[in-house]
Amino acid sequence: MAIARQLAAIPGHEVVLICRDEDKAARCAEAISRTTRNSYVRYELTDLSRRASIQALAQRWKGPLDVLINNAAIAPRRRLQTPEGIEMQFATNVLGYFWMIDDLTEHLRHGAGARIINVASYWAGGLDLGDLEFKTRPYNNDAAYRQSKQADRMLSVAFGRRLRPLGITVNACHPGDVNSALSHSLGFGGHQSADSGAETPVWLAVGETGGQCTGKYFEHQREVSCAFGRNPEAVEALYTACLSYRT
C-alpha cells in the first residue's frame, strides 16, 4: 500500500492496485485516494499465482502502461499448490512476476519510456533449477522465499536484455527490512516502516536512474553488484524454465 500511496501523492499519476480480495482492495484504494487527494486510484482483481487471471487482466487493460511494479510475495509455512498444481510460493513470487511482464509487454510498449520494477530482496539464494517447486527437497518457507527472490533478480536481467530494444527498462530492488505479515511468516519481524520500504521502488519508478538503467539490482537507492545476474547460463535456464509454464 505504501508504494501505491507514495506514487499517488505525485501530481498527475493514475495508480491501479492489483489485488485478490475485493473488500480489502476497495478499502485500500479509497484510503489512498482520500489521503493523497488523488481521484485516479482504482483496483483490478487478479490472482497473481494463476496465469489465466493475469491474462484476463491484460486483455481488459485499456490504454498505455508506464510503470509496472511487481511486489506480490507470500511465504506459506507449508507447501501449498495452485489449482493448476504449481507450488504456491513459486507461482506467486516468481511466475507471477514473469507472467505480469510477459502478458503486459504490449501495453508497456505504448507507455512513455516504460519501466518495470521487480521488488526482490537481499535475502536471496539457494536456487535449484532442477527443483523449482520443492518436489524433491523438503519444503521450507524460508528456503523457498530466498530462492524466489534470487529468481526475481535473475529474471530482471533476462527481461532487461529482451525489453531494452522496446524502450522498456527492468530493474530489481531490495525494499528494506519491513515489518510485515510476510516478514513474520519468515520468522523475523523487520525494523523498517512500510513507507521506508517503499522508497527505493518508488525512486526507481519515477527517478532518472530507473529510466536509464536496466537489468540492475538496487538497495537503498544505490546499485549493488548482483552475483546471480552475472551467470548468463543460469539466467537463461531460469527464463526457459519459466517460459515452460506459459501454456
- Largest sheet geometry: 5 strands, mixed
Find the structural class using helix and strand composition.
alpha/beta
The tally of beta strands, per DSSP, is 7
H-E order: HEHEHEHEHEHHHEEH
Strand coverage percent: 5-15%
Provide the spatial order of strands within the biggest beta sheet.
3-4-5-6-7
- Low-confidence sequence ranges: none
Brief characterization of the structure:
The protein has helices spanning 2-8, 22-36, 51-60, 88-109, 141-163, 181-185, 194-206, 208-212, 232-243; strands at residues 15-19, 41-45, 67-70, 115-119, 169-174, 216-219, 222-223. By secondary structure, it is of the alpha/beta class.
Helix and strand arrangement:
Blueprint (H helix, E strand, L loop, with lengths): L1 H7 L6 E5 L2 H15 L4 E5 L5 H10 L6 E4 L17 H22 L5 E5 L21 H23 L5 E6 L6 H5 L8 H13 L1 H5 L3 E4 L2 E2 L8 H12 L4
Parallel strand pairs: 1-2, 3-4, 4-5, 5-6
Antiparallel strand pairs: 6-7
Helix pairs in contact: 1-2, 1-7, 3-4, 4-5, 5-9
